[in-house]
UniProtKB/TrEMBL annotation:
Gene Ontology cellular component annotations, sorted alphabetically: membrane
Ranges for domain NIDO: 220-375
PANTHER family associated with the record: MUCIN 4-RELATED, MUCIN-4
Biological processes, Gene Ontology terms: cell-matrix adhesion
Residues spanning the signal sequence: 1-27
Source taxonomy: Eukaryota, Metazoa, Chordata, Craniata, Vertebrata
The UniProt record lists the keyword Transit peptide: no
Protein name per UniProt: Mucin-4-like
GO MF term list: ErbB-2 class receptor binding
Length: 533
């Protein structure tokens, strides 16, 4: 009897256990793809490069997982599924007017997680912004203004552009080495096709960059600003550091690049730009709601980066009063290399407050770092600059070097010169060079055209017994080729001429003329001696 009761109670218990299990299973929603949507998921902010995307974020409450959707992109793409997300304002900063009403869940694209086994610069580059990161420290802005020796630049009108910057190394961007750049009041850095192509672009495209843009630019915080009412200003400072000591600011930039992108990096040129208290266009009734942020461009001549820093609590535009809320953060290189930051695909409550979110590639709120170059070839500007920076001044080694003969025939009869012939670019030239060096080991080179006329002469620091008129086999001509042909810069060719001075045939005297003048001087001295006797 006892055994029967035990069996009955056990059977009833098993049935209850099975019913509980079925009820729990029914409570778990299932997507159309058959995957389970847990009650708590991690909303993932994505930025992808190439075939992988490293995604990081914090846990937020969500109810479902939507079907995957694809986002159009170029060499740098964003794709993934949509998840519910609620923006969270960091603690310690009050939510501006109109912001609290936008904290309801909003969709967010997600992407696959990059395997943790992938390391190096490419994997480090994939970290992206994530919401609700109030526990993370905020990045401090770099020092700026007169106390930091920055230059202030502002025009009291609706739109203005900065002066043109021309880094000697050039600036690698996408697949191209760019020669010049300028920034605008609207939060852009633009790389013009020429010095005459300087324009303003106040309004960002509603859908962001497509990769088909002809004008290369970086959108630090691209939206229409207005400095015309006497509020706000900009500051900038260049730091050329290829052959000089580096100030603490540049060393800190290098440290951030090395840390976050795992890249050995030594800056050759850096530009710091600060937009201070920039008012929004159309915000004429309230110029107190301004934004303050910075951009730092830096390159070693081969690699290039931009650091974007947004002041904690300083991004205060009232987006509810703007005509459009299309602010853009990202870049487009003009040759298909582009990125639209994931943050700018979110609601205005988030994308107008980048200071409240962990930046791309970093672990700080308000700091974004992008790698900007893709496949730039040899930088002959950098080669030329590195070489000229190591050369002695000619006055240290050029004493006693002769002028060039005015014609090839003169030089061929002068034992101080040796002749050779070879190809130089597309031209056929004849060449004379010093038969022996001066006491400092230097010599001269003289080039002649097919009519035996002098084309150009140069003093050269290092004499060689044999010279060839080919930049592929002669180091001195190779240096000339770097600076005056390949670099595409008249300034660098002038720098080359400072280290290897041009010479002509002024003051040239043939050995016969030198001998006859010496003979005349000797005869006159003998005649004088005879008269004395």
């Amino acid at each position: 009897m006892g055994t029967g009761r035990w069996k009955t109670s056990t059977f009833v218990g098993c049935c209850i256990w099975i019913l509980h299990g079925l009820r729990a299973a029914a409570a778990i929603p299932v997507t159309t793809e058959g995957s389970f949507a847990a009650g708590t998921v991690s909303p993932i902010a994505t930025e992808s490069k190439g075939p992988h995307a490293l995604v990081m974020g914090t846990a937020e409450t969500s109810t479902t997982v939507a079907n995957a959707e694809t986002a159009e992109s170029g060499l740098v793409g964003d794709a993934g599924g949509a998840q519910l997300w609620s923006p969270e304002v960091a603690s310690g900063t009050p939510a501006p007017s109109g912001e609290a009403s936008l904290r309801a869940p909003t969709s967010l694209n997600a992407a696959p997680v990059l395997p943790s086994a992938l390391e190096g610069e490419s994997s480090a580059e994939g970290a992206s912004a994530g919401p609700g990161l109030s526990a993370l420290p905020a990045v401090p802005l770099y020092g700026y203004g007169a106390r930091e020796n920055d230059r202030e630049y502002v025009e009291r009108k609706v739109d203005f552009n900065s002066p043109l910057f021309k880094p000697e190394t050039g600036f690698p961007f996408g697949n191209t080495l760019r020669s010049s750049l300028y920034f605008t009041d609207n939060g852009q850095i633009i790389f013009p096709a020429s010095d005459n192509s300087i324009f303003t672009y106040p309004n960002p495209p509603p859908r962001g960059f497509s990769g088909r843009e002809e004008v290369p630019m970086i959108a630090v915080f691209w939206d229409n600003a207005d400095f015309s009412r006497g509020v706000g200003t900009t500051f900038y400072q260049e730091f050329p550091t290829l052959n000089t000591d580096k100030p603490p600011f540049v060393r800190d930039v290098e440290t951030k690049v090395r840390r976050y992108l795992r890249s050995s990096y030594s800056a050759a040129w850096t530009l710091k730009i600060t937009w201070e208290k920039a008012p929004a266009y159309g915000a004429r009734t309230d110029t107190r709601r301004t934004i303050t942020y910075q951009a730092v461009l830096t390159t070693d001549g081969f690699r290039s980066y931009v650091l974007m820093l947004y002041q904690a609590g300083g991004m205060q535009w009232d987006y509810t009063r703007l005509a459009a809320t299309n602010v853009l953060i990202g870049y487009t290189s003009g040759d298909g290399f582009y990125r639209n930051d994931d943050l700018t695909r979110r609601p205005p409550a988030a994308k107008y407050r980048p200071d409240q979110f962990r930046g791309y590639n970093t672990d700080l709120r308000g700091l974004w770092i992008y790698k900007l170059e893709s496949r730039v070839g040899i930088n002959y500007r950098l080669k030329c600059l590195a070489w000229t920076g190591q050369q002695q001044e000619p006055r240290m080694w050029s004493q006693g070097l002769p002028a060039c003969p005015c014609t090839l025939q003169q030089g061929q009869q002068d034992p101080r010169f040796k002749s050779s012939r070879g190809g130089w670019g597309a031209a056929r030239v004849s060449m004379l060079h010093s038969a022996s060096p001066n006491p400092y080991g230097a010599g001269v080179r003289c080039l002649y055209d097919s009519q035996s006329r002098l084309i150009e002469g140069r003093q050269e620091r290092y004499w060689r017994f044999s010279r060839l008129a080919s930049p592929f086999r002669d180091q001195e001509l190779k240096l000339y080729d770097w600076c005056c042909n390949q670099a595409g810069s008249a300034h660098l060719c002038a720098r080359y001429s400072e280290k290897r001075p041009k010479i002509g045939c002024d003051g040239y005297q043939s050995p016969a003329a030198t001998g006859s003048s010496e003979e005349k001087e000797s005869n006159s001295e003998e005649q004088g001696d005879g008269e004395d006797k």
